[in-house]
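Archive entry. Fields below.
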Amino acid sequence: MGPAFYIAAGVAIFSTIMVITRYNIMHALLYLIVSLLSVAVIFFLYGAPFMAALEVIIYAGAIMVLMIFFVMMLNLGPQTAGDERHWLSPRIWIGPAVLCAVLLIELGYLILQPPVLPAGEIVMVDPKAVGKSLFGPYVLAVELAGMLLMAGIVGAYHLGRQKKKITHRFLERTAQ
Amino acid sequence: MIISTTAGLVLAGILFVLGLVSMLIRRNIIFMLVSVEIMLNAAGLAFIVAASRWGQPEGQVMFMFILAMAAAEVSVGLALILQLYHQLKTLDSDEASKMNG
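PREDICTED_STRUCTURE:
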Protein backbone atom coordinates (compact mmCIF):
# COMPACT_ATOMS: atom_id res chain seq x y z
CA MET A 1 0.00 0.00 0.00
CA GLY A 2 2.85 2.36 0.76
CA PRO A 3 4.46 2.58 -2.69
CA ALA A 4 1.05 2.87 -4.35
CA PHE A 5 0.22 5.87 -2.20
CA TYR A 6 3.51 7.62 -2.86
CA ILE A 7 3.34 7.00 -6.62
CA ALA A 8 -0.22 8.35 -6.77
CA ALA A 9 0.72 11.32 -4.58
CA GLY A 10 3.69 12.13 -6.81
CA VAL A 11 1.53 11.96 -9.91
CA ALA A 12 -1.08 14.21 -8.25
CA ILE A 13 1.46 16.86 -7.21
CA PHE A 14 3.30 16.82 -10.55
CA SER A 15 0.13 17.08 -12.63
CA THR A 16 -1.22 19.87 -10.40
CA ILE A 17 2.01 21.81 -10.88
CA MET A 18 1.64 21.26 -14.61
CA VAL A 19 -1.95 22.57 -14.38
CA ILE A 20 -0.94 25.83 -12.77
CA THR A 21 1.97 26.50 -15.11
CA ARG A 22 0.38 25.83 -18.50
CA TYR A 23 -0.41 28.69 -20.85
CA ASN A 24 -2.93 26.76 -22.90
CA ILE A 25 -6.24 26.11 -21.13
CA MET A 26 -6.87 22.79 -22.85
CA HIS A 27 -3.50 21.33 -21.79
CA ALA A 28 -4.14 22.47 -18.21
CA LEU A 29 -7.56 20.82 -18.15
CA LEU A 30 -6.15 17.51 -19.40
CA TYR A 31 -3.50 17.59 -16.66
CA LEU A 32 -6.21 18.40 -14.14
CA ILE A 33 -8.09 15.26 -15.17
CA VAL A 34 -4.92 13.23 -14.50
CA SER A 35 -4.60 14.90 -11.11
CA LEU A 36 -8.20 14.07 -10.19
CA LEU A 37 -7.75 10.45 -11.24
CA SER A 38 -4.68 10.07 -9.05
CA VAL A 39 -6.57 11.61 -6.13
CA ALA A 40 -9.26 9.00 -6.78
CA VAL A 41 -6.58 6.30 -6.39
CA ILE A 42 -5.63 7.84 -3.07
CA PHE A 43 -9.27 7.78 -1.95
CA PHE A 44 -9.35 4.08 -2.78
CA LEU A 45 -6.21 3.48 -0.72
CA TYR A 46 -7.76 5.30 2.23
CA GLY A 47 -10.68 2.89 2.34
CA ALA A 48 -13.28 4.94 0.47
CA PRO A 49 -13.96 3.08 -2.81
CA PHE A 50 -17.38 4.67 -3.29
CA MET A 51 -15.92 8.15 -3.03
CA ALA A 52 -13.20 7.14 -5.51
CA ALA A 53 -15.90 6.14 -7.98
CA LEU A 54 -17.74 9.41 -7.38
CA GLU A 55 -14.51 11.36 -7.90
CA VAL A 56 -13.96 9.68 -11.26
CA ILE A 57 -17.57 9.98 -12.40
CA ILE A 58 -18.51 13.47 -11.20
CA TYR A 59 -15.21 15.39 -10.97
CA ALA A 60 -13.11 13.84 -13.72
CA GLY A 61 -16.14 12.96 -15.81
CA ALA A 62 -18.90 15.51 -15.54
CA ILE A 63 -17.26 18.71 -14.30
CA MET A 64 -14.12 18.45 -16.43
CA VAL A 65 -16.11 17.55 -19.55
CA LEU A 66 -18.27 20.60 -18.86
CA MET A 67 -15.21 22.83 -18.68
CA ILE A 68 -13.65 21.30 -21.81
CA PHE A 69 -16.89 21.82 -23.75
CA PHE A 70 -16.99 25.38 -22.48
CA VAL A 71 -13.44 26.08 -23.66
CA MET A 72 -14.29 24.54 -27.02
CA MET A 73 -17.40 26.72 -27.23
CA LEU A 74 -15.48 29.92 -26.53
CA ASN A 75 -13.13 29.06 -29.42
CA LEU A 76 -10.24 31.05 -28.00
CA GLY A 77 -7.33 30.27 -30.31
CA PRO A 78 -3.60 30.88 -29.85
CA GLN A 79 -4.11 34.55 -28.95
CA THR A 80 -5.18 33.60 -25.42
CA ALA A 81 -2.10 31.44 -24.85
CA GLY A 82 0.06 34.39 -25.89
CA ASP A 83 -1.81 36.66 -23.47
CA GLU A 84 -1.31 34.13 -20.73
CA ARG A 85 2.43 33.89 -21.42
CA HIS A 86 2.58 37.67 -21.16
CA TRP A 87 0.59 37.80 -17.90
CA LEU A 88 2.48 35.01 -16.15
CA SER A 89 5.91 36.60 -15.97
CA PRO A 90 8.10 35.57 -12.98
CA ARG A 91 7.96 39.07 -11.51
CA ILE A 92 4.25 38.51 -10.86
CA TRP A 93 4.17 35.02 -9.43
CA ILE A 94 7.34 34.82 -7.33
CA GLY A 95 5.97 36.81 -4.36
CA PRO A 96 2.72 34.91 -3.72
CA ALA A 97 4.46 31.60 -4.42
CA VAL A 98 7.15 32.24 -1.80
CA LEU A 99 4.59 33.34 0.80
CA CYS A 100 2.45 30.27 0.17
CA ALA A 101 5.54 28.05 0.39
CA VAL A 102 6.25 29.51 3.84
CA LEU A 103 2.68 28.71 4.89
CA LEU A 104 3.02 25.18 3.50
CA ILE A 105 6.25 24.54 5.42
CA GLU A 106 4.60 25.76 8.60
CA LEU A 107 1.58 23.52 7.98
CA GLY A 108 3.77 20.48 7.35
CA TYR A 109 5.76 21.17 10.51
CA LEU A 110 2.58 21.38 12.58
CA ILE A 111 1.20 18.16 11.09
CA LEU A 112 4.47 16.28 11.57
CA GLN A 113 4.54 17.10 15.27
CA PRO A 114 4.16 14.03 17.51
CA PRO A 115 0.41 13.49 17.69
CA VAL A 116 -1.59 13.74 20.86
CA LEU A 117 -3.69 10.73 19.96
CA PRO A 118 -1.89 7.49 19.16
CA ALA A 119 -1.48 7.39 15.39
CA GLY A 120 -4.13 4.99 14.20
CA GLU A 121 -4.21 2.85 11.13
CA ILE A 122 -6.53 3.25 8.19
CA VAL A 123 -10.08 2.16 8.87
CA MET A 124 -12.30 1.07 6.00
CA VAL A 125 -15.61 2.94 5.89
CA ASP A 126 -18.11 1.03 3.79
CA PRO A 127 -20.67 2.82 1.60
CA LYS A 128 -23.53 1.39 3.65
CA ALA A 129 -22.45 3.40 6.68
CA VAL A 130 -22.16 6.50 4.48
CA GLY A 131 -25.65 5.97 3.09
CA LYS A 132 -27.17 5.41 6.52
CA SER A 133 -25.48 8.55 7.79
CA LEU A 134 -26.43 10.54 4.70
CA PHE A 135 -30.13 9.73 4.94
CA GLY A 136 -30.21 9.54 8.72
CA PRO A 137 -28.91 12.59 10.58
CA TYR A 138 -27.89 14.51 7.45
CA VAL A 139 -31.11 14.28 5.45
CA LEU A 140 -31.76 18.00 5.85
CA ALA A 141 -28.35 18.76 4.36
CA VAL A 142 -29.16 16.44 1.44
CA GLU A 143 -32.32 18.45 0.78
CA LEU A 144 -30.31 21.66 0.97
CA ALA A 145 -27.81 20.25 -1.54
CA GLY A 146 -30.72 19.48 -3.85
CA MET A 147 -31.96 23.05 -3.55
CA LEU A 148 -28.42 24.29 -4.23
CA LEU A 149 -28.20 22.23 -7.41
CA MET A 150 -31.61 23.53 -8.52
CA ALA A 151 -30.46 27.09 -7.92
CA GLY A 152 -27.29 26.29 -9.87
CA ILE A 153 -29.27 25.02 -12.85
CA VAL A 154 -31.64 28.01 -12.89
CA GLY A 155 -28.79 30.48 -12.35
CA ALA A 156 -26.66 28.97 -15.08
CA TYR A 157 -29.59 29.08 -17.50
CA HIS A 158 -30.42 32.66 -16.61
CA LEU A 159 -26.83 33.88 -16.88
CA GLY A 160 -25.93 31.92 -19.97
CA ARG A 161 -28.99 32.94 -21.98
CA GLN A 162 -28.27 34.97 -25.04
CA LYS A 163 -30.26 38.12 -25.56
CA LYS A 164 -32.53 37.57 -28.51
CA LYS A 165 -31.55 40.07 -31.16
CA ILE A 166 -34.55 41.15 -33.24
CA THR A 167 -33.37 43.21 -36.16
CA HIS A 168 -34.98 43.56 -39.51
CA ARG A 169 -32.55 43.25 -42.38
CA PHE A 170 -33.32 46.72 -43.71
CA LEU A 171 -32.94 48.24 -40.27
CA GLU A 172 -29.65 46.43 -39.80
CA ARG A 173 -28.41 47.82 -43.08
CA THR A 174 -29.32 51.37 -42.09
CA ALA A 175 -27.68 50.86 -38.74
CA GLN A 176 -24.30 50.14 -40.22
CA MET B 1 -1.38 -0.82 6.23
CA ILE B 2 1.65 1.38 5.86
CA ILE B 3 0.20 4.68 4.66
CA SER B 4 -0.45 7.06 7.48
CA THR B 5 -2.91 9.83 8.15
CA THR B 6 -0.04 12.29 8.21
CA ALA B 7 0.98 11.57 4.62
CA GLY B 8 -2.58 12.11 3.37
CA LEU B 9 -2.94 15.38 5.26
CA VAL B 10 0.42 16.64 3.96
CA LEU B 11 -0.64 15.76 0.42
CA ALA B 12 -3.94 17.61 0.91
CA GLY B 13 -2.01 20.62 2.21
CA ILE B 14 0.36 20.60 -0.76
CA LEU B 15 -2.51 20.40 -3.26
CA PHE B 16 -4.41 23.18 -1.46
CA VAL B 17 -1.36 25.45 -1.48
CA LEU B 18 -0.80 24.78 -5.18
CA GLY B 19 -4.40 25.79 -5.87
CA LEU B 20 -3.97 28.88 -3.71
CA VAL B 21 -0.80 29.93 -5.55
CA SER B 22 -2.55 29.45 -8.88
CA MET B 23 -5.51 31.51 -7.65
CA LEU B 24 -3.16 34.32 -6.61
CA ILE B 25 -0.90 34.46 -9.65
CA ARG B 26 -3.28 33.81 -12.52
CA ARG B 27 -5.26 36.49 -14.30
CA ASN B 28 -7.19 34.29 -16.67
CA ILE B 29 -10.67 33.72 -15.22
CA ILE B 30 -10.93 30.11 -16.35
CA PHE B 31 -7.64 29.32 -14.63
CA MET B 32 -8.92 30.95 -11.45
CA LEU B 33 -12.01 28.71 -11.59
CA VAL B 34 -9.78 25.68 -12.14
CA SER B 35 -7.68 26.58 -9.10
CA VAL B 36 -10.83 26.84 -6.99
CA GLU B 37 -11.58 23.30 -8.13
CA ILE B 38 -8.09 22.18 -7.06
CA MET B 39 -8.59 23.70 -3.61
CA LEU B 40 -12.03 22.08 -3.19
CA ASN B 41 -10.58 18.74 -4.18
CA ALA B 42 -7.77 19.09 -1.65
CA ALA B 43 -10.29 19.89 1.08
CA GLY B 44 -12.26 16.81 0.12
CA LEU B 45 -9.10 14.72 0.35
CA ALA B 46 -8.52 15.99 3.87
CA PHE B 47 -12.10 15.02 4.79
CA ILE B 48 -11.65 11.51 3.37
CA VAL B 49 -8.38 11.03 5.26
CA ALA B 50 -10.04 12.17 8.49
CA ALA B 51 -12.97 9.79 7.87
CA SER B 52 -10.62 6.84 7.47
CA ARG B 53 -8.61 7.94 10.51
CA TRP B 54 -11.57 7.80 12.86
CA GLY B 55 -13.61 5.22 10.96
CA GLN B 56 -16.63 7.51 10.82
CA PRO B 57 -18.74 8.12 7.69
CA GLU B 58 -19.14 11.88 8.33
CA GLY B 59 -16.05 12.77 6.33
CA GLN B 60 -17.33 10.98 3.25
CA VAL B 61 -20.74 12.60 3.67
CA MET B 62 -19.02 15.97 3.74
CA PHE B 63 -17.09 15.08 0.59
CA MET B 64 -20.37 14.36 -1.19
CA PHE B 65 -21.64 17.81 -0.19
CA ILE B 66 -18.40 19.34 -1.48
CA LEU B 67 -18.95 17.49 -4.75
CA ALA B 68 -22.50 18.81 -5.13
CA MET B 69 -21.39 22.34 -4.30
CA ALA B 70 -18.52 22.14 -6.79
CA ALA B 71 -20.90 21.06 -9.55
CA ALA B 72 -23.29 23.95 -8.88
CA GLU B 73 -20.40 26.41 -8.56
CA VAL B 74 -18.82 25.34 -11.84
CA SER B 75 -22.04 25.66 -13.78
CA VAL B 76 -22.81 29.14 -12.45
CA GLY B 77 -19.16 30.21 -12.79
CA LEU B 78 -18.94 29.10 -16.39
CA ALA B 79 -22.15 30.93 -17.23
CA LEU B 80 -20.72 34.09 -15.61
CA ILE B 81 -17.48 33.71 -17.59
CA LEU B 82 -19.51 33.28 -20.76
CA GLN B 83 -21.38 36.54 -20.17
CA LEU B 84 -18.16 38.32 -19.25
CA TYR B 85 -16.45 37.10 -22.39
CA HIS B 86 -19.35 38.22 -24.54
CA GLN B 87 -19.35 41.67 -23.02
CA LEU B 88 -15.62 42.32 -22.69
CA LYS B 89 -14.18 40.06 -25.42
CA THR B 90 -11.36 38.98 -23.08
CA LEU B 91 -10.67 36.57 -20.21
CA ASP B 92 -8.50 39.00 -18.26
CA SER B 93 -9.97 39.36 -14.78
CA ASP B 94 -8.63 42.90 -14.43
CA GLU B 95 -10.95 44.05 -17.19
CA ALA B 96 -13.93 43.18 -15.03
CA SER B 97 -13.08 45.74 -12.35
CA LYS B 98 -15.75 48.19 -13.41
CA MET B 99 -19.07 47.46 -11.75
CA ASN B 100 -21.45 49.48 -13.87
CA GLY B 101 -24.71 48.38 -12.32
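CURATOR_NOTE: Chain B is about 75% helix and 0% strand.
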